[in-house]
């Protein structure tokens, strides 16, 4: 396989390296990943995270194992096991479907490698298109709010929602970003703040429950978020807390955009009701952990509900910024997404 380079995933000298996103921003530690079990652990613990990146990391591993001589049946097993790692982000299923098709070919090793390279390079191009299309919606001086982490760490390219912010900053200079810290796992506070800082984009970190009063005070012009799965009717799943923002945006008349590549569309999924939502460990809500250590504040026996994602209904969305264009609610109601 050719060398491939992204901010948090690379294939170099015949090995796969992944940047540990759980330890960022205080430690930059790269893992070498050689097996399905290792990759599953990296994905489950969110060391590898973000809808496009999860799919690409699993894809590189399958191609790598094929090059190492794993049998066709073992590769089929690997694809199934990797696909089952996290249920909500459909990019993983999309990538594994492409790899399953490549595996069915006579020359399956070459086919798997070519497919992996193509999916990786395609993601870079998709990010670029979304970022340019979305940046055109931003005006100089805009205050933009974003949730979770949707940047170069979460994709092979510049990112989805954060890619838009990156390109808008390059275009206009004077924008400012409100960063939701994104409880429980703090992808905003840890990763988005880190990326904006490295891009020298002015930002202010807030707790998730501060967004309402900011909107009431007229301090948010636009919201850009990513997606883990967009249903055919435009409903979409994204990091838990996204739906709160959409409701608040509707109430306060703030433009609310979802930014995602075609690989996040699930046309077989009729509406948001059918999107499987991952539930995660109680410990994530009872306290926090990361490169700074571990801390639990809730009582040991506290009962916890911890869905990792929520679903935003299409009627709360101002626009869907995809790599193919920006679609409004009427276009989505008329079936625009089903035609892509
Ligand atoms: O649980 P995570 O950190 O993988 O969740 C990530 C998100 O919800 C992102 O918003 C989404 O994957 C889009 S990233 C390009």
Automatic annotation (TrEMBL):
What pathway is this protein said to act in by its record?
Answer: Amino-acid biosynthesis; L-methionine biosynthesis via salvage pathway; L-methionine from S-methyl-5-thio-alpha-D-ribose 1-phosphate: step 1/6
Record site: Transition state stabilizer = 148
Q: Name one Pfam family in it.
A: IF-2B
Keywords carried by this UniProt record: Amino-acid biosynthesis, Isomerase, Methionine biosynthesis
Q: Which GO terms describe its biological process?
A: L-methionine salvage from methylthioadenosine
Q: Which residues form the active site?
A: 228
Q: Which reaction does it catalyse?
A: 5-(methylsulfanyl)-alpha-D-ribose 1-phosphate = 5-(methylsulfanyl)-D-ribulose 1-phosphate; 5-deoxy-alpha-D-ribose 1-phosphate = 5-deoxy-D-ribulose 1-phosphate
Please indicate if the UniProt record lists Metal-binding as a keyword.
no
Task: Report the top EC class in one word.
Answer: isomerase
Enzyme Commission code(s) on record: 5.3.1.23
HAMAP family from the entry? Answer: Salvage_MtnA (MF_01678)
Q: What is this protein called?
A: Methylthioribose-1-phosphate isomerase
Q: Which organism is it from?
A: Pseudoalteromonas piratica
Read off the lineage from the record: Bacteria, Pseudomonadati, Pseudomonadota, Gammaproteobacteria, Alteromonadales
